[in-house]
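Example 3.2
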Amino acid sequence: ADAALAKAPLLGALSSVFDPFMDPYVDMEKQNMEDMLAKVTAEDNIDRDGALPVLASSVHLFAYIKTSVRRCTALTTGQTFYKLSRAFCACLEAYASRLGG
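Structure, written as tokens:
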């Protein structure tokens, strides 16, 4: 039990050391998402297999976000993850504006 308590503070402390250097990672994820959005919205199809029609681009977008979250949280859940969430917000806003007109 004492060994588990001794390890607990190290888990977050080690990954947080890298947070100041992770901006290029966040920029890369944002650029990849923007590139993917440009591609899938240009050829947007409606998936009618389910009960409700769904834009295929939204499926791709949220699958990318899910994968990106997994990649980031494997490294850190600190400031880098927060910055990545802000990048998601920016891309979702851009996606909404593309859909709106």
